[in-house]
TrEMBL record:
Alphabetically ordered keywords of this record: Bacterial flagellum biogenesis, Bacterial flagellum protein export, Cell membrane, Cell projection, Chemotaxis, Cilium, Coiled coil, Flagellum, Membrane, Protein transport, Transport
Cellular component, GO annotation: bacterial-type flagellum; plasma membrane
Coiled coil: 33-111
Location in or out of the cell: Cell membrane
Source species: Caloramator australicus RC3
Pfam family, one: FliJ
Name of this chain's protein: Flagellar FliJ protein
GO terms, biological process: bacterial-type flagellum organization; bacterial-type flagellum-dependent cell motility; chemotaxis; protein transport
Superkingdom in the source lineage: Bacteria
Family, as annotated: Belongs to the FliJ family.
Length: 145
């Protein structure tokens, strides 16, 4: 029996390795997104605590410093929101690239499956022809006796 040889095997291997690379990139972006989200929550919580539990100051300068601190937190939260949005965009881009890589690999795998089915069908036909030839040969040998 012949051995199955898929003509696009190297392409399939490339698509598989490319998909693995995209999975790694996606997981890195996902981790980055969660880190940015965590940092935003920390900043928001810090601001919330500062507002809910303001220290007791005796001097006006202390109040001014406290409000500058709150203003600084607001700006940090705003920047962190921007960083989170950028991380979300990169995550979505990585997700789309992974989906495309998975589809590309899947297409080649389906071609391989179809080629293998055709190969098995052809092998079955060859085997049937060979059996028919043996049967005919046996029949003809029996007729001659």
């Amino acid at each position: 029996m012949d051995k199955f040889n898929f003509k696009l095997q190297k392409v399939l291997e490339f698509k598989e390795s490319y998909e693995e690379k995209k999975k790694e990139e996606f997981s890195i972006e996902l981790i980055n997104y969660y880190e940015q989200e965590k940092r935003l929550k920390e900043l928001t919580e810090e601001r919330k605590k500062a507002i809910n539990n303001p220290p007791k100051f005796k001097m006006i300068f202390d109040y001014q410093g406290f409000y500058r601190y709150l203003d600084l937190l607001e700006k940090r939260i705003e920047r962190q929101n921007q960083a989170l949005n950028q991380a979300k965009e990169r995550l979505e881009k990585a997700r789309q690239e992974l989906i495309k890589a998975t589809k590309d690999r899947s297409i080649i795998e389906k071609l391989k499956e179809k080629a293998y089915e055709e190969f098995l069908e052809e092998q079955s036909k060859k085997e049937q022809r060979l059996n028919d030839d043996y049967a005919l040969y046996s029949y003809l040998r029996g007729e001659r006796r």
